Amino acid sequence: MNKQLSGIYILWKREVIRFFRAKSRIVGTLAMPFFFLLILGSGFGPAYAAENGGGNYMNVLAPGIIGMVLLFSSIFSGVRVLMDREFGFLKEIMVAPISRTSIMLGITLGGVTTSTVQAFLLLGMSLLFGVQLNLYGIPLAVLFMFLISTSFVSLGIALASKMDDMHGFQLINNFLMMPILLLSGALVPLNNLGTWQFIIYLDPLTYGVDALRGSLINASQMPLWLDFAVLAGFCIACITIGAFLFSQRE
């Protein structure tokens, strides 16, 4: 048992160290969300305020952009798995005296940690745009960040376990991520999606974004217990599938 925990810890630590050493990666992952906040918040803010009786669109947008950061940074953990395979590191740890499930959990926890750090950096950045946050809701928001990130890191590892080509993985990810993001209500409130209203409830990120809005700005449109139940179920399913597919990898 101690050997398994040590293996998980070492892999987690490797992911965290690799993240903080790559300063350009930190800047790159935050640049796009920053411009989303700046451009969308400035461009659609007046129209949103006029339609909603003076509501602050930036307050609604910021939790959605945090959900976007969690989605993108988490699912790209699969790219790092493919890179480790290409450079031979994955082959070395596969023969280590720990289970493949422990290897997958170590990589997953590392990805969850780095994506949550990025989400917190963006959370702090959003204060510069005048976003009014419920500070008492931050601990609850951390719980939902963990569920969102764990789900999509595991999904990324599951996809990487069935692929060999890094470029193909990125194409498939883009094909998945954009619909997940756009149908989640991250950029517009759920009641503004018109004819797509019924589809958004099939998107797991919908419940993540709604939970973040509920905990950070007290503006959820669904009960938080429902958001938690759906995210927890999706998280368990992704971990199970990811662990199974990773363990089957030759």
Overall description:
With 250 residues, the chain is mainly alpha-helical. It has eleven helices and no strands. The model has no long low-confidence stretch (mean pLDDT 82). The protein has one domain. The longest helix has 29 residues, at 23-51.
Brief description of this entry?
By secondary structure, this protein is an all-alpha fold. The protein has helices at residues 2-21, 23-51, 57-75, 77-86, 89-94, 100-127, 138-161, 166-182, 197-200, 204-217, 224-248.
The stretches of 5 or more residues where confidence is low (pLDDT under 50) are none
The helix/strand class is: mainly alpha
Largest sheet: none
Helix content: over 70%
The count of domains is 1
Treating each run of at least 4 consecutive H or I residues as one helix, how many helices? 11
Percentage of residues in strands = under 5%
Q: SSE order in H/E notation? A: HHHHHHHHHHH
Throw out a few tags for this protein.
mainly alpha, 250 residues, 11 helices, elongated
Summarize the topology.
Layout: H1 2-21, H2 23-51, H3 57-75, H4 77-86, H5 89-94, H6 100-127, H7 138-161, H8 166-182, H9 197-200, H10 204-217, H11 224-248
Helix pairs in contact: 1-6, 2-3, 2-6, 3-6, 3-7, 3-10, 4-7, 6-7, 6-11, 7-10, 7-11, 10-11
